[in-house]
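Support request from a user on the community tier.

User writes: "When I paste my structure tokens into the form, the page sometimes reloads and wipes my input. The last time it worked, I copied everything first. Here is what I submitted, just in case something in the input itself triggers the reload:"
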């Protein structure tokens, strides 16, 4: 038996949506790693700030290469390059790879970013709220939902029949977006895709690990009971 400790450490928090994206990739590929909990403001975490002065989660540290890698899409590509497994989240075919990267960017920029705008605004004092920004974020989400309804009605995953980087991006973005600006009652194909996402073993594991922290999510009362009830664990 190999008792060596994993060479990879992921600096993250179980509630953080972008951290979910990398955790999904790690669990999908079965890549060994050690979690390093960033508990509190990331900029106050000395180790995280030392590795990546921007102090944004997640950051992957590879002790074998003495290399820190930030940014979710880059981390997942780094894993496939240096720690390949039989599960490939970025295809070898260049045309399909471009499509995967496009929809990875789509979910990050047009679902994840406006979702986080709504979450951030909920946390602000009344005097600091941004009604125009909230309105713009909801409009962006509505456009994204309509595009995704058309796309997900004709294929199993974001890019064809295989789970990829794009789906790693989609799951956390849609999970929290459903709470802040719901889509499942309006877009049946997108709702079915969302169900396929959250029922994967990797997704169930990520959600299970986040459950103790859902109480701190500003829209926690809008999370579906299937994700929060103890009997569904």
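"...and here is what came back when it finally went through:"
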């Amino acid at each position: 038996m190999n008792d060596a400790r994993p060479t990879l450490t992921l600096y993250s928090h179980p509630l953080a949506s972008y951290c979910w994206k990398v955790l999904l990739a790690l669990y999908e590929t079965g890549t060994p790693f050690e979690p390093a909990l960033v508990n509190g403001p990331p900029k106050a975490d000395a180790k995280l700030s030392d590795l990546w002065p921007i102090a944004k989660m997640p950051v992957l540290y590879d002790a074998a290469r003495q290399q820190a890698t930030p940014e979710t899409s880059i981390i997942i590509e780094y894993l496939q390059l240096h720690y390949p497994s039989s599960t490939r989240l970025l295809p070898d075919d260049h045309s399909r790879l471009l499509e995967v990267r496009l929809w990875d960017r789509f979910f990050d920029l047009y679902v994840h970013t406006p979702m986080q705008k709504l979450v951030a605004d909920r946390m602000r004092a009344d005097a600091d709220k941004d009604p125009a920004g909230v309105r713009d974020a909801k409009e962006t989400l509505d456009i994204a939902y309509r595009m995704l309804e058309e796309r997900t009605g004709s294929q199993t995953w974001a890019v064809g029949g295989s789970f990829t980087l794009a789906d790693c991006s989609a799951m956390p973005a849609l999970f929290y977006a459903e709470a802040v600006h719901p889509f499942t009652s309006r877009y049946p194909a997108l709702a079915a895709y969302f169900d396929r996402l959250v029922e994967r073993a990797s997704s169930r594991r990520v959600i299970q690990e986040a459950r103790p922290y859902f109480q701190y999510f500003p829209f926690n009362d809008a999370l579906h009971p299937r994700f929060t009830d103890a009997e569904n664990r």
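Agent notes: The reload is a front-end session timeout and is unrelated to the input. The chain is about 55% helix and 5% strand. The chain has a mean pLDDT of 95. Escalated to web team.
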